[in-house]
Amino acid sequence: MAELFKRLQEEMKAAMKSGDKDRLSTIRMLISEIKKVQIDSKKELTDEEIIAILQKYVKQRKEAYEQYAKAGREDLANKELKEIEVVQEFLPQPLSEDELTKIVEETIKEVGASSVKDMGKVIKAVMDKVKGRAEGSVVSRIVKEKLS
């Protein structure tokens, strides 16, 4: 069993004992999502696969937050923000913009990219290196700046 999954289960127990309903419901939802993917794929998931599920969940919560904020539903928007905070505790620390820029620059040299035409190759290589520690949109923006 993946370490991250065990940690989620332990945190769920702790949330039950402390009576933190919001945290408990978020962690239960995450465990449910992970189990659903495990059943569909008929295999145990690795920590990397679980991180991908958590990132997808955060992305969905951010989109929901934006929708609620636009509609003036502060109560629901705040609920989404709290869920995002809980999920981010289980994700690896994101890279800073400077760290990411260094990785992009190194990758451009490794791949031998010279123009915007090589952007796809560079982004793929960078995303493989940063595995869950940077959003694709940020990587894409930095790569575009460096190749333009």
Describe the structure.
By secondary structure, the chain is mostly helical. It contains seven helices and no strands. The model has no long low-confidence stretch (mean pLDDT 90).
Map the helices and strands.
Layout: H1 3-18, H2 21-41, H3 47-70, H4 74-88, H5 97-111, H6 119-130, H7 136-147
Helix pairs in contact: 1-2, 2-4, 3-4, 5-6, 5-7, 6-7
Features:
7 helices; mainly alpha; single chain; globular; 148 residues
Mean of the pLDDT scores? 90
CA-atom Rg in angstroms: 18 Å
Multimeric organization: single chain
How would you sum up the major sheet?
Answer: none
Proportion in helices: over 70%
End-to-end C-alpha gap: 45 Å
Task: Provide the structure class.
Answer: mainly alpha
The counted number of beta strands is 0
Q: Give the count of helical stretches.
A: 7
Gross morphology = globular
The helix/strand series, from N terminus to C terminus, equals: HHHHHHH
Low-confidence stretches: none
Proportion of β residues?
Answer: under 5%
How would you summarize what this structure contains?
The protein is mainly alpha-helical and 148 residues long.
